Fold each of these.
Amino acid sequence: MSKLTPEEIARNLQDRFGADRIELMKGSVGQPWIQLAPEMLPPVALALRDDPAFQFDVLMCLSGLHYDKENELGVVYNLDSTTLRHTINLKVRVPLDHPHIPSLERLWKTANWHEREAFDMVGIIFDNHPDLRRILTPDDWEGHALRKDYVQQDFYQGIPTK
Amino acid sequence: MMELVKTGADNHEMVINMGPQHPSTHGVLRLELVLDGELIKEVRPNIGYLHRCFEKYAEELQDYAKVIPYTDRMDYVSAMNQEHGYVIAIERLLELEVPERVEYARVILVELQRIASHLLGIGAFGLDLGAFSPFLYLFTEREKILDIFEKNSGARLLYNYFAVAGLMRPLQDDFKGDVADFVTSFRPKIKELEDLLSYNRIFVKRTANIGVLPAKVALNYAASGPVLRGSGVAWDLRKNDPYSIYDRFDFDIPVGTGEMGTVGDCWDRYHVRVLEMEQSLRIIEQALEGMPDEGDVMAAIPKRIRPKDGELYVRTESPRGELGYFISSDKSAAPFRIKARAPSFVHLSMLPAISKGALIADVVAIVGSIDIVLGEVDR
């Protein structure tokens, strides 16, 4: 077992799940990421956590994004292995009118609050999450603050917000 | 405020509200405690009282550099570390070279800040458990660090001192002397703290074997920093994923050993912080030696920051743990998305798991031992 590069991880996953379902992408700068369809996320994440070749035991970060031009929402997962010292980023994109992504709370407990935050801020619905409530804003707040077209409500329970 | 929950004849459950204004919640944190007598059956943390949506500001400012003062306001007791993580992320995004003198100065500043933050964390922790005097002694030392910061940056709490590939203002001529004086005067104080608080019988009784966090659970919850090291995992990003110039320094990673009770209890988390201050002093000494006396405090950078398109996640070791910035750029001058991964947010999420079965008074100890800053939890 040794440290793997993102390219090696992607190739390994392509061998298991099919080359057309795992795509390694990269911008002009920064780190590459593996793009997945939402239904592929749980099996891939489970393999990444439990397979001796990967051993991704830590979910460092989970961020929700709103791609306003494409009318899509997305989630980026940053995984880390404390034993093999490699990292990988995963990305899932879903259409705005059906923003459902399977929850990873059962694999990494830390996903619980991160997913609640992504639900609160961007409006992604994580299926099978045990407690999907708003976390940073009140339960009866309107809209999702990190959507690009978000307009802040003028009043919250009769109190001016601006 | 109390509320009796009557769901059956034998049910003695009671829900008590702790916070949002409670001295031991370290800010505005509300905990709903479900109790059976004095035993905790469940803790439900409620956060968001300090939520300012820093991430939305970052997008709407239309300028990467303007975000730096906002990062200060997340974890306001370790602002230097917050800035450090952010400017490193921008420098990697732009692939910039940072002058040697700046790198050394930054390391000295963030290590001083780490000591200042631990002094506050330890002091407040003792205060929560009834030890009033260590808090005052520690604050005297913290003041000395803030004086150095004030002399160079002009501010005592929120500095806005780090710039992209540089520092906002040049360092004062006697910077090195000031820091060296502090290191000499502070080293014996750590021993004093050990005598005054660490092995104090009452303090040990309140913290040993309380809030035990096993290493496996800690990793599953993505704990980091002193919380993870308290559970016996030698994981420090300064060593395990070196950034800046940390690979040049020689220092140890203190871990919890269960000296007073079980590995991963409140005392271990506390003691890791005490030992870390000594390691920070070692880093500062080496950095003072290596730091060039002359040189720019600012590299030549483009006037308007416009990175190429791409994404990256950059993590640094803040006093509280892994501080990560996820930045997504779409070639424009405005960041497409900046997400701050705050260690306090992650650590607070495991409070329900480690306080089950404890007493109400232990919850105070547990919250103090994970050393959260609510500005960072809520962002």
Note: Residues 6-17 of chain A form the longest helix (12 residues).
Amino acid sequence: MYSRRQFVKSSTLGLAGGLAAGSFAAPSLASTGGGVLKVALTADPISFDPHLTGSLQGRGTTQAIHDTLFGIDESGNLAPMLVTEWEQPDNKTYILRLRPDVRFHDGTEFNADAVVYNINRILDPDIGSIRSGEIKALDTIEAVDNLTVKIALQYPFAAFLFPLTDVSGCIGSPTAFEAHGKEGAALNPVGTGPFKLVSYSQETETVLEKNGDYWDEGKPYVDRLILRPIPTGSTRLVELQTGGVDLAEDLPLQNIASLGDQTDIVVSERVGFRWEYVGFNAKDEFPGSNKKLRQAFHWAIDREALHHAAYFGTGAIGYSGILPGHPFHDTDYQPFSYDTDKAKKLLDESGLGSAEITAYLRPEPVKQRAAQLIQSMAADVGVTINLEQLDYASHRAKLRGGELPMDMHGWWGYRPDPDQYLSVLLASDGSYAKRHGYSSAEMDKLFSDQRAETDPAKRRAMFREITRLMNEDAIYVPWHYSSDFKGISKKLQGFRHAADSIIEYKYISIGG
Amino acid sequence: MFAFIIRRTLASIPVLILVSLIVFFLMRLLPGDIIDLIVGQAQVEVSEETIAELRLQYGLDEPIYVQYFNWVGGMLRGDFGLSFRSHQPVIDIILPRLVPTLQIGLTALVLSAAFAIPFGAICAARPNSVWDRIGSMLTFVGASTPYFLAGGLLIYFVAFRMRMLPPSGFVLPTVDFWASMKHTIMPAITLALSLVAILIRQARASFSDVLRHPYIRTAYAKGLGETRVLIQHALKNALLPIVTILGLQLGTVFSGAVVTETVFAIPGIGRLLVDSILGRDYPIVQALVLLIAVAVVVATLIVDIVYGILDPRASRA
């Protein structure tokens, strides 16, 4: 295994959003200038249109070019970015004050009209942005004056501003959008961000250069950013080890183990990037329609064993859908333990006798390992799980059709507000809920209540109630929070491992 | 010869039509489409209206035969459509990706032929010698080593341990010739490994066949050395089956490219093809498969022409 010494956990349970210590402190004064930062991505960004890009790499690169309206601070709360101040006169209205004297890369002015234009672009059916669902609560958006935007919602929605910390909140130059059209915008991004696009060659490299007029004084520190898509994990690692790149995305677990005692590389782990659960389809034709069977899995799964065997002890054991690093996460909530007697008792009460259920897997090695362990744990209590392999698109098609009897893949991608994904999974109108045959009036009420609530402390308590009901209904049996890993050359300073895994290039500098 | 080329070209048209039909309908038989992937990748709630709008924009709402004729009609006008994943014209995406694949593939073919043909000849000339045993071992190792393993080992030893070559990526020869060569060597060797295995076997079989002929005995009898017999007398006749196999190895080069380009992060068409199949990027897959079909047809044609030069009887038939 790797040495613990160089294995920096950016966020552990309970230390909400606590960032890496030591080598990733703020850049020292001696090393704030220049250089080329070379990064190995897992995939090509493909598009730099903030409203059309979908992948993590697309979102990350797009956010280096376009600033978002809001940021997220290290405790997981909303922070100023292009919006400097905001207020909420009532639970359906927001007033946003924008940062003055900000210009797009094409020299045009960033103002309230630009914000209105961008939000309307997301909602434009001709653009076909998949982000429209994130802001569907919007009723009207208007420019009150040059630097003030007023947003009115159709219904109270406490999580409304959170998607605006991601690509939905990226603001591009309206002049450029108009000039390039929908197809042209993909490769001609014009934002206000710390970097400008210089050149792009698909699957080869994306070159960005420093925006010399960036509003955040002194940033970015590096002059140039070269992003190279390298699909194979071990190759990314060798590039990092030989100095071909300074930063590598997503180092697979088995490669981290092979690092040995190499001293010029640090592996940063951020717990809570993905949430692992065993999902059940509650429609009548599937065994998962039996609630006792579903509940039995709370006790039948040996979370500790999975944590060690499938994840080599990385990440954290999980009992809820609120990810570690989020202010609503509660470390003390541990309602289940590995108890086969309890599981068997629930199965007896289910009246099923024995159950057989099929789980379809996507080509993800860690998940396959975990699925085999869960398969044997289920066999111990008398449930037969058949595992079958599908490619990603086929798996999605089955999921869309609501044809997955059992879902071993969980939810990937940290979201700054749990409503952003838990409502998809649990509220009756959520697509995952529908596909899992789940609908609960009590759950729907909990969701609409927390949406109308503006006090975060009260919302936190409400989400605790949502978690309790989720575990009671056991459509999703949570078992793990897994991590995002990044390999970083020790000469880099200022790296912040964001919960959503998107690299904030503007804080990074290259030291000696 | 000219009539022969025309005849062969016309004969390939039905093949290409068949290929276009197969690739078009096979891709659509695969479960899931680009919209499933867009929605899945973004992990956000996407409304049914947005999904319907997207299907319309991607032209997936039309009946499948209409989609086929739209595609074929576009191609006849030189329009291969837009990539589903990147919204860029298919041609703009495919053309730059050809260079690395061809450069690495041809290097591998030349390397493996230059090594395997003489080696196979020696194996045939001295059966059961040490050389012959090394030859069988190379065949065995080459044929049974998967590309990802060979590539991974090369990266580990050559790039990481010895730091002799860059581990991944590609540079165009027009930009920096030597850098381009450096990026070509490891993937070419990886590809060449299985080619060498096939070619040594073929060369050995073909030479030992030729070496049994009486004219070889005559050549030896008139006092020629082994080298001269092999090169001046045996080579030309032994080459015929080897050239056939070499031409057919274009398929191996393409299929090997899929893995080597992923391991070495090379922007070639092998990786493009797999990414596009997994990404349900129909326009790219269709254009690429057709392109590969054309390439194989042309390669077979070239083999036949070379055959005709080596053995004039072939083109008269």
Note: Chain B has a mean pLDDT of 90.
